[in-house]
Automatic annotation (TrEMBL):
The keyword Membrane applies. Keywords: Cell outer membrane, Membrane, Signal. Belongs to the SusD family. Residues 1-21 form the signal peptide. The keyword Membrane applies. It is found in: Cell outer membrane. Pfam families: SusD-like_3, SusD_RagB. This is RagB/SusD family nutrient uptake outer membrane protein.
Length: 637
C-alpha cells in the first residue's frame, strides 16, 4: 500500500460516467479551499464522492458478477470496445497476490481505489462548513450522503477482503511514516463502524427524490435502510459469523481478526433491519413490478409473454416507472453492455461488429431454473430429468416460449417463466428487438457458424451458445446498427429484500409459514405456485420446506434464480460459503460449431473452474505488506 494512501490531500478529481448530476465535476481544482469556496463548488465535490460508485457497477469490473459462475467469457478475448476477460478469468485460476485482479484496495487491474473514494468522503465531511451560502438543511443532507458513501465503500472492501483498516478521518499532511502504517481491524468492529455510519446518515436523508431529472440516483432513507439490511445479512452469514476456517487469523499485534463462534444475535439484528427496510419501502409505495404495455405493444399480447415481460422489465424498466427498484445505478447496460448479452437474431445483425454476444451462460446455470411446477428440475416428479437432452420439436402450444417447429431439447420446455425471461437459448423466442407481433416474434438460431447467432470469428462468439437475456432491454434493437434502450442497473430491489427477510427469519427459527409468506410473494409474481403447493404435490421431497435446512436450501436457490445476472448472487454465494461447491463442477456449453441438433446438444467442457478456500477473500497486493509492515495477508495467500 502506498505510504500516503490515507493522508489528507489536495483534491483529485475523478470524472463520473454518463449521468446527469455527475457530469458536472470540474477538472483541475487546485485546493481544498477553492473546492469549498461556495455552494456550487462544494456540490461538485459531493458528486466526486459519488463518482467511484458510478464506475463500480460496470459488470466486467464487478467481483460478484464475474466470479459467480453465472457467466463465462472467452479466455483472454478482448474486443474492439475494450471489454476484457480479466475479471472472468479469475475463476480460471489467474488470481495471485503479486498483482491481484480487480484490485479494489489499490485501484489497479480493473478495480477502483476505494480507500481514495473514502478519503474524498472524509474531505467532504471535514470541509462542508466552509461555504457560507450553503443552507443548514443542505449541509445536513450532504453530510449524510457522504457518510452513507463512506459506509458503502467500507462495506464493499469488507466483502472482498474481510478485516480492513477503518478510515474515519483523513490524517494530516504532517503525519509521520508510522502514523500512516494502518492495520486491519476485526470484522465485527468493521461491521459496527459501517452500521454506525448508516445510522448517523439515515435521519438526514430524504425519503424520496422529488427532482428525478437532476437527482435520481442520489441516496435516500429507503436506500440507507436497505443497505443496512445487506450489511447485517452479510455479517450474520457463515463467511463472517463463526467461521472456523479463519481460526488463528490475527493481526501483527495478535488481535483476532475473525470471530470463530456463531453469534445468533447477528441474525436477529439482520431480521430486524430487513423488516425496517421493508416497512419503509412499502410505506413509500414500493411494490413488486408488473408490466404495463406501452402503446406499441399489441393489445392481444398472450399471458405467457406478458409474464415474461413483467420479469424482464423488473430489471430493465425505467426507474421512474418501476416501483420495485430501491437502488439502481446509471445505465451501464445501455452503453456498450447490453450487446454482450444479446445474440444475433437476423441477417442484418450478422454484419454488426459492435454487438458481440460474448456473455455465455453455462449449462449449470441454465439448469438452476425451476420447472413450470416451481421445482428444481431433478426434484420434479412430473418432469423428465433423465431425458432432458433428448431432441424435441416445438408445437403450437409452445410457440411463445420456443419457436414453433424448431428442433431443440426437452430441457427448454415446461420451465418456469423466469427461465424464458432470463435465458436466450437455441430456439428460444426473443420478443422485442423491434418486432412486437407475438405470432411472428424473432427467435435464437445458434447451431453452427451458418446460423445467425452462431460463431462468426474469434470475437463474435458465445462459447456456450446461451445468452443472459435478462440484462437486455426488450426494446433494444440489434440490426446492422445497435439502438440501445438504456436502463439503470439494480443494486437492490424489493424482491431481493423480501428474500433477505425470509432468509433471516428462517435462520432465527421462525415458523415456516411466516418465512414462506415473503418467498411466495416473489414466486407468485414469477407465475409460480407457493412453495407449499409445489413441494407437497409434485416434489420427490414433499416435506423439504418443513425443516430449517430444507427451507434454507429453497431460499438460497430462490435468490440465485430471482437475482440471476444482477451482480448480487456472487456476494450471496460467498457469504453462504457455497461458492466453492458451485465452482467445483466443470463449466459446460453446447457444441457450438455443429449445425445438426443431435450433434449440437452434446455438453462440451469449456473449462474447469479454480476456486479454493483461500479465494473467499481477495489477496492484498504483496508489495503493500512490504511498504506497511502493520498489514497481514489473508489466509492461504
Amino acid at each position: 500500500m502506498k505510504i500516503y494512501r490515507f493522508l489528507g490531500m489536495l483534491l483529485v478529481v475523478m470524472l463520473a460516467t454518463s449521468c446527469n448530476y455527475l457530469d458536472v465535476i470540474p477538472d483541475n481544482v487546485g485546493t481544498i479551499d477553492y473546492a469549498f469556496r461556495n455552494r456550487n463548488e462544494a456540490e461538485k465535490y459531493l458528486f466526486t464522492c459519488y463518482s467511484t460508485l458510478q464506475r463500480m457497477q460496470y459488470p466486467q469490473h464487478n467481483p460478484s458478477f464475474t466470479t459467480s459462475g453465472e457467466i463465462v467469457y472467452p479466455n483472454d478475448l478482448r474486443d474492439n470496445l475494450g471489454m476484457d476477460a480479466l475479471g472472468f478469468n479469475i475463476i480460471r485460476g489467474t488470481q495471485n497476490a503479486n498483482n491481484p485482479g480487480l484490485n479494489y484496495w489499490d485501484g489497479e487491474e480493473k478495480g477502483l481505489a476505494l480507500f481514495a473514494a473514502i478519503r474524498y468522503c472524509n474531505t467532504m465531511i471535514e470541509n462542508v462548513d466552509k461555504p457560507i451560502d450553503l443552507t443548514e438543511s443542505e449541509k445536513l443532507r450532504w453530510i449524510a450522503e457522504a457518510k452513507f458513501l463512506k459506509a458503502y465503500y467500507h462495506f464493499y472492501l469488507m466483502r472482498m477482503y474481510g478485516p480492513i483498516p477503518i478510515t474515519d478521518s483523513n490524517l494530516p499532511i504532517s503525519s509521520d511514516e508510522n502514523a500512516v502504517k494502518v492495520k486491519r481491524m476485526p470484522v465485527d468492529q468493521v461491521v459496527e463502524y459501517i452500521v454506525g455510519l448508516l445510522d448517523e446518515a439515515t435521519p438526514n436523508l430524504p425519503l424520496t427524490i422529488t427532482n428525478q431529472t437532476t437527482e435520481l440516483g442520489r441516496i435516500t432513507r429507503v436506500i440507507a435502510l436497505s443497505v443496512k439490511a445487506d450489511v447485517l445479512m452479510t455479517a450474520a452469514s457463515p463467511l463472517f459469523n463463526g467461521n472456523a476456517d479463519y481460526a488463528g487469523f490475527t493481526g501483527k499485534d495478535g488481535e483476532m481478526l475473525f470471530n470463530t463462534q456463531v453469534d445468533q444475535s447477528k441474525w436477529v439484528k439482520a431480521e430486524e433491519a430487513c423488516l425496517a427496510a421493508i416497512n419503509l419501502c412499502e410505506q413509500q409505495g414500493l411494490r413488486l413490478h408488473t408490466f404495463v404495455p406501452p402503446a406499441n405493444i399489441p393489445s392481444n399480447l398472450p399471458d405467457s409473454l406478458r409474464q415474461v415481460l413483467t420479469l424482464q422489465t423488473a430489471i430493465t424498466e425505467r426507474w421512474e416507472l418501476n416501483n420495485e427498484l430501491i437502488w439502481a445505478i446509471n445505465p451501464v447496460f445501455g452503453f456498450g453492455q447490453q450487446e454482450f448479452g444479446m445474440p444475433r437474431l437476423n441477417a442484418g445483425s450478422t454484419t454488426n461488429l459492435i454487438a458481440q454476444g460474448t456473455y455465455a451462460v453455462p449449462i449449470s446455470q441454465q439448469e438452476l431454473f425451476y420447472t413450470d411446477k416451481g421445482l428444481p428440475i431433478n426434484e420434479d416428479r412430473t418432469w423428465n430429468y433423465s431425458n432432458r437432452f433428448s431432441i424435441r420439436t416445438s408445437q403450437s402450444k409452445d410457440r411463445f416460449y420456443v419457436h414453433e417447429g424448431y428442433e431443440t431439447i426437452n430441457a427448454h420446455f415446461d420451465r418456469e417463466p423466469r427461465f424464458y425471461s432470463s435465458i436466450g437459448f437455441d430456439g428460444g423466442v426473443w420478443y422485442g428487438n423491434g418486432t412486437f407481433d407475438p405470432e411472428n416474434a424473432q427467435y435464437v438460431q445458434a447451431r453452427g457458424s451458418a446460423s445467425f447467432a452462431g460463431p462468426k470469428d474469434d470475437i463474435r462468439i458465445n462459447i456456450a451458445a446461451c445468452w443472459p437475456k435478462k440484462i437486455v432491454n426488450y426494446l433494444t434493437v440489434y440490426e446492422r446498427q445497435m439502438t440501445w434502450e438504456p436502463y439503470r442497473s439494480p443494486i437492490i430491489r424489493l424482491a431481493g429484500l423480501y428474500l433477505w427477510y425470509a432468509e433471516a427469519m428462517n435462520e432465527n427459527g421462525k415458523p415456516h409459514a411466516e418465512v414462506l409468506e415473503y418467498v411466495n410473494r416473489v414466486r407468485s409474481r414469477a407465475g409460480l405456485p407457493s412453495v407449499q403447493e409445489a413441494w407437497t404435490n409434485h416434489s420427490t421431497q414433499p416435506t423439504k420446506f418443513t425443516t430449517k435446512d430444507g427451507l434454507r436450501e429453497i431460499i438460497h436457490r430462490e435468490r440465485r434464480i430471482e437475482l440471476a445476472f444482477e451482480g448480487n448472487v456472487g456476494w450471496d454465494l460467498r457469504r453462504w460459503k457455497e461458492l466453492q461447491e458451485v465452482l467445483s463442477r466443470p463449466m459446460q456449453g453446447w457444441d457450438i460449431y455443429e449445425s445438426q441438433a443431435s450433434n449440437f446438444y452434446r455438453p462440451q467442457l469449456l473449462f474447469a473452474p479454480v476456486f479454493n478456500q483461500r479465494d473467499y477473500l481477495w489477496p492484498i497486493k504483496a508489495n503493500n505488506l512490504i511498504v506497511n509492515n502493520n498489514l497481514v495477508q489473508n489466509p492461504l495467500w
